[in-house]
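To illustrate the input format used throughout this study, we show a single complete record. The first block contains the structure-token representation of the backbone; no residue identities are included at this stage. The design step must infer an amino acid for every position from geometry alone.
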């Protein structure tokens, strides 16, 4: 039994290595970069058009430009597994995409551990990404959420905000 398990682990490790060399980053689908067709743009989170900011000043400017329109501020980092999961699962859900089209979308990139990222997190007293801030058209913060939300939970949170 243990030898068989060891062989399976070795094979899985080799598959993971080959997938990583090909640019794969999903441990559940290590060979997706070799087998999956490209995802159409309408099914990607980029189709939502997030404005990415990396400094407190850029966030302040983006919020000022959005006055008169509701805003979703999305705290995100490239190393954040749950952020990537939000992009792959929640932000491609048709209901979520339709609901977010009514809002200005600002993505706060806190990938780097530097003074700017810490200041951005401190603005809303956040521990880290993923986190979401709903801002009303008049600039008031109406709701705040930290942690992953699936499509249904995200829609529930969005309707409450």
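Output of the design step:
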């Amino acid at each position: 039994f243990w030898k068989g398990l060891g062989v399976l682990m070795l094979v899985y490790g080799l598959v993971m290595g080959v997938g990583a060399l090909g640019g794969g980053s999903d441990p559940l689908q290590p060979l997706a970069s070799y087998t999956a067709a490209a995802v159409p743009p309408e099914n990607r989170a980029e189709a939502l058009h997030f404005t990415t900011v990396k400094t407190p000043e850029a966030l302040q400017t983006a919020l000022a430009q959005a006055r008169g329109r509701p805003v979703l501020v999305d705290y995100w980092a490239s190393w954040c597994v749950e952020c990537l999961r939000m992009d792959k699962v929640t932000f491609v859900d048709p209901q979520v995409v339709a609901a977010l089209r009514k809002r200005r979308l600002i993505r706060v990139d806190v990938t780097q551990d530097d003074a700017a990222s810490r200041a951005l997190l401190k603005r809303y007293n956040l521990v880290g990404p993923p986190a979401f801030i709903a801002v009303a058209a008049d600039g008031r913060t109406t709701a705040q959420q930290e942690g992953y939300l699936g499509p249904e939970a995200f829609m529930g949170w969005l309707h409450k905000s």
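Structural context for interpreting the output: Residues 37-46 have pLDDT under 50 and may be disordered. The chain is about 45% helix and 15% strand.
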